[in-house]
Structures are given as structure tokens and as C-alpha cells.
Amino acid sequence: MNKSISAFFPVLNEEGTVRRLTGDLLRVLGAYFKDYEVIIVNDGSTDGTKQIVDELCRENGGYVKAIHHDQSKGYGNALRSGFNAARGDLVFYTDGDYQFDMDDLHNALPLI
Fold it and tell me: Residues 11, 56: contact at Cβ < 8 Å?
């Protein structure tokens, strides 16, 4: 696809899901876009989420970016941070607790 996409998701104490969600987004977006990014908005997590997010950034070069709030600013502000950081022609967001299967994007992305 000739357009670029930014996908982001806010997390708060999601050390159990952040790695899987990031990996699935990278895999699905990479199948459709040459220019894409995944932005993780860490909204003041107190578990190991921040460390995992930083590892994901290092492991995935420029494809994964992090925004860290020192303390929780709330869901709305986490979304605002994600939208403000997004640089793609298209912007997609989801929740960080893996409520939705990212493979479902295979049904939507060809329609764009």
C-alpha cells in the first residue's frame, strides 16, 4: 500500500500483553505497508511494562516508538499522546489489553 500508517495503543500495567500485541501489529502492518510505525503509550505503569516497551523499541529499530508518562494521566490523555505522536497518513488505535485479535485487520486493511 502506498500510504503510511501509525498504529498505537495505550498501556497501563500490561506486561502480560504488550509484547504479543506489538508483535502481532508489526506482522500484520508489515504485510500491507512499507511505511508503518507502532507507538506504545505507557500511561504510568508500575509493573514491568516500561522495561518491556523499551526492549521492544530496541529490538525493532524505528518501527516501534514509546511514549512514557511518568504517572497515569488517564485514558483520554494517553489517546491524545498517541494521536499527537502519529505520523502516518492513516492512524489506527486499539486497547493494550488485547481485547481484539489483530489478525482481524486482514479483513479491513484491503478495503482501505
Answer: no
Percent of the chain with pLDDT over 90: 84
Sign for the pseudo-dihedral over CA of 31, 36, 41, 45: positive
What is the chain's mean pLDDT, rounded? 95
CATH architecture of the domain 5-106 equals: Alpha-Beta Complex (3.90)
